[in-house]
Amino acid sequence: MILHKVKIMLGLEPSCEEVNGFIVQYLDGDLDEKTRKKFWAHIGDCSTCGRFFEQYTATIDLTREAGDITPPQELVEKTLAFLRTRWADGASASD
Ligand SMILES: [Zn+2]
After folding, report:
1. What distance in angstroms lies between residue 86's CA and the mean position of ligand 1's atoms?
2. Cα pseudo-dihedral 84, 89, 94, 95, rounded to 10
3. Domain coordinates in residue numbering, the chain
């Protein structure tokens, strides 16, 4: 975990906040290969983001199964808001 934080500080890995944004881009197929590699490196190292990614994709799968192609924005926002408060424990809160 310490190595993980050093990597983020050196810019070798994106921060949790950046990964948060990457997830949406990743699912849209908007991430270039370089960013995707950093994204996966972070997801592999960071249990918080790993769990968030699983939860996020599971949420989308569930809404798809329910016949809704687009996940309800409210649900996505709630999930993100919840995780942001958890991330804020280890990072500087901006809002
Ligand atoms: Zn993370």
Report:
1. 11
2. 60
3. 2-87
